[in-house]
Prior knowledge:
The chain has seven helices and eleven strands. The chain has 212 residues and is of the alpha/beta class. The protein has a single domain, classed as Glucose Oxidase, domain 1 (3-Layer(bba) Sandwich), CATH 3.50.30. Strands 1, 2, 3, 4, 5, 6, 7, 10 and 11 form a nine-stranded mixed sheet that branches. Strands 8-9 form a two-stranded antiparallel sheet. Helix 3 links the parallel strand 4 and strand 5 (102-109). The radius of gyration is 19 Å and the shape is elongated. The termini are far apart.
Amino acid sequence: MTTLPLPLNFHERAKVLGSSTLYEASHLPCAVDSAIRPVWDGAFIAAPAYPLECSPGDNLALHLAMERVPRGSVLVVGTGSFIAGYWGEVLTVAAEAAGVVGLVIDGGVRDIAAMKKRQFPVFARGISVKGTVKVSAPSVGQPFNFNGAFVAQGDLVVADEDGVIILPKADAARTLAEGEARANKEALMMQALTEGRSTLELMNLTEWRTRA
């Protein structure tokens, strides 16, 4: 398994900017359903995607992925929004050994204390003690629409406390550059606010003073 290439300093730059700024800078429909949240505070992911789909209540595709996923990837897992314990401590240890750097899943997970202790970042729709079977694997490594954002292998995932976005790899470098320009502009605006100027003035909305 090889390590996928990233835009220059992608992880560090994405962490500074955050998912919200990058989403606005992308001008793309790349935001994932906001119900998919970090399972422990402070979790962060910025890495290439490895997509797969599980049948409801069946996590066989996850076990197959462990032998195929490129090191440095984040697993992006569709389950049809079925809440069960698809993922727990055993798969976390297996993922770390395989070089996986995080999990984004629209289903459920369990063994949260172990993930937090190991600092393995997981974003999920829910938490469930219920186990899963291992019977079918709809797709492993194939692209699909993940809860509002298309995902293919090598697309770039950014996940933090604001949410999850999936940037097409062809747009990642541009989005980073535009995100940094946006952040610099906002820094100047916040400095102006501390000096007494208003958001209406800075955003050219002063006409609303008399209209509202």
